[in-house]
Amino acid sequence: MKKVLLSMIFASTALLANAQKSEVEAAKKSWMDYANSQNAVTIDLGALASKMKVSADKKKEEPAKPKPTLAEDLAILNVGFAHTDLAIGHEKSKDMPTAWSIRALIASRIALIDTTDFQNSIAKQQVASEAIEKAEALNVKKDKSVENDVKDAKDFVENAFSNRGMIAYKRKDYVTAYTAFNAMTIKNPQDTSMFVNAGLVARLAEKYPEAVASYRKAIDLGFKDSYSLYSQIVDITGTNLKDSVKYLEVLNEASAKYPDSTAFIGRITDYYTKKGDVAKSQEMLKKLAEKDPKNAVYQYYIGETYFKQALSLQEKRNDIDQKKKKEYDDMSSKMMANIDLALPYYKKALAIDPKYADAVDKLKSIYGFKNDTPNYEVMSKLLITLDKK
Q1: CA-based nearest residue to 16, from 68, 65, 89
Q2: In sequence order, what DSSP letters do the residues of 337-383 get, joined into one string?
Q3: 55 pLDDT tier (thresholds 50, 70, 90)
Q4: 155 exposed, middle or buried (CB, 10 Å; 0-12, 13-18, 19+)?
Q5: C-alpha separations of 148 from 57, 104, 281, 385 in Å
Q6: Sign of the four-CA dihedral 73, 79, 83, 84
Q7: Average pLDDT, the chain
């Protein structure tokens, strides 16, 4: 009797072990069902993909099936995920590498495709990451199917980040988009495009320091269009952060890297002009011109420092009662003195770059002020020619 009882215990144990292993098989089946529902001859769904091949002839004979809805896809995957819960929760199968690799595969796919519930996507991504780690640790025999499942799961996890980021961006949920793209930069610290994406959505989310930091990192990593990133950093620092010290620092840095940029040099000139420190602006520009005398931009903006003062004096003169002739004439004299100082710099800029339309436009204005009709007409004609080009 004891012998019979002992046999029954052994039999029950074997059945239980097989039952738990069947949970793994059931999870695999759910994955297969999901894969087959995608109507692909072969799809990148890991080691199981090889089992899902169908002949081209057979595929042609079969009528195309309608693509399942997201809800239907998630329903199939959730069934499989539930089976992995049972498999890893039992003593007899909790250390099976396949139990963990199929769990990683299913959870990571849910994380990738669930666009309706970001919290579920994030939670499944975490589960997948933990399952990947466990599968790799348990796969001491280097089972190829486990390795393939893990590889695909890693791809799904990585794509889940960017997928959530793009969807959140399109929904104008910029905070969620930033979280996703920033996570991608941590995972792939050399990917400049992810830093640019993170910077863009951070600015839209009004996370201005984070936006600057992301753009900075992209520049440091050698992003090709760093000019546009510098422009973004300049705007954010000056407009949003209102940090005048950092603003000037980044402007100087950007103008040194892009010496031909009228935008950066112009902003520096405007910065000093607004502060009432025209002399500082002129000093800086003249030093740049000495280092690079063939740079038309520097000559142009030195002229600008004088021309803008002339315009400011003109506004003040317009407020003077013309009966106060001496005061009016004195202001006119100062205005024309600045125009005369600006003239040679604009002429030099045009001599260096004969197609410099802005310099032509300013020369036209100056000759108009001075009632120099012949030169005014020359500049007018030249400007029309350049505009047509």
Answers
A1: 89
A2: HHHHHHHHHHHHHHHH-TT-HHHHHHHHHHHHHTT-HHHHHHHHHHH
A3: very low
A4: middle
A5: 28, 11, 63, 65
A6: positive
A7: 87
Distance between start and end Cα atoms, the chain = 106
pLDDT digits (tens, 9 = 90+) for 254-280: 998 998 888 898 898 888 888 889 898
Cα distance between residue 64 and residue 134, in whole Å: 39
Question: In the 3-class helix/strand/coil scheme, how is 213-233 assigned residue by residue?
Answer: HHHHHHHHCCCCCHHHHHHHH
For residues 98 and 143, is the Cβ–Cβ distance under 8 A?
A: yes
CB 234 within 8 A of CB 254: yes
User: How many Å separate Cα 153 from the centre of its chain?
Assistant: 25
- The yes-or-no verdict on residue 166 having pLDDT over 90 is yes
Q: Are 70 and 115 in contact (CB under 8 A)?
A: yes
DSSP type of residue 43? -
Burial class (CB in 10 A: 0-12, 13-18, 19+), 159: middle
Distance of CA 275 to the CA centre of its chain: 34
Place of tokens 């204005």: 365
Q: Cα dihedral sign for 164, 167, 171, 174?
A: positive
Q: What is the DSSP letter of 66?
A: P
pTM: 0.69
Sequence-separated (6 or more) residues with CB below 8 Å from residue 302:
282, 285, 286, 289, 345
Instruction: Find out whether 270 and 285 touch, Cβ atoms under 8 Å.
Output: no
Distance separating alpha carbons of residues 353 and 377, to the nearest angstrom: 20
Distance CA 368, CA 229 (A): 39
Buried b (16+ CB within 10 A) or exposed e, 162-194: bbbbebbbeeebbebbbbbbbbbbeeeeebbeb
pLDDT digits (tens, 9 = 90+) for 169-224: 999 999 999 999 999 999 899 999 999 999 999 999 999 999 999 999 999 999 99
Q: What's the one-letter identity of residue 128?
A: A
User: Which tokens hold the place of 86?
Assistant: 């049972």
Alpha-carbon distance 60 to 6, whole Å?
57
Residue 73 and residue 359: Cα distance in Å, rounded?
Answer: 64
Residue type, 243: D
